[in-house]
Specification:
globular; glycosyltransferase activity; Glycosyltransferase SypH; Glyco_trans_4-like_N; transferase
Length: 104
Amino acid sequence: MLPNPMIWLLLDSRSFGGIETHVLELAKGLVAHSYQVKVVFSNEYHPTPPLETALNQCSISTMTLSREYPNIHPLLRLKEAIYSAEQNNQRPTVIHTHATRVAF
């Protein structure tokens, strides 16, 4: 196994329900087992989604694709994020999507 694999948990979230609870607990569990975790939101919402706030309170890294790459077609934002992470030696080992509407 690679040392400290990077796992991205990808979802679209504006409220807090079952999927968000699952992602929060999964992220905390992975961090507790020494995995690097980044929760990646496909879209930005105002006000800030409750899950993003909860993750920040737990010091779990987040990224919002539409905020980071606003001038790129939604289908290419994830590709650009992976490329950018690779340039910083942070390429994800696993990208785990959640729910059927990741909003691409």
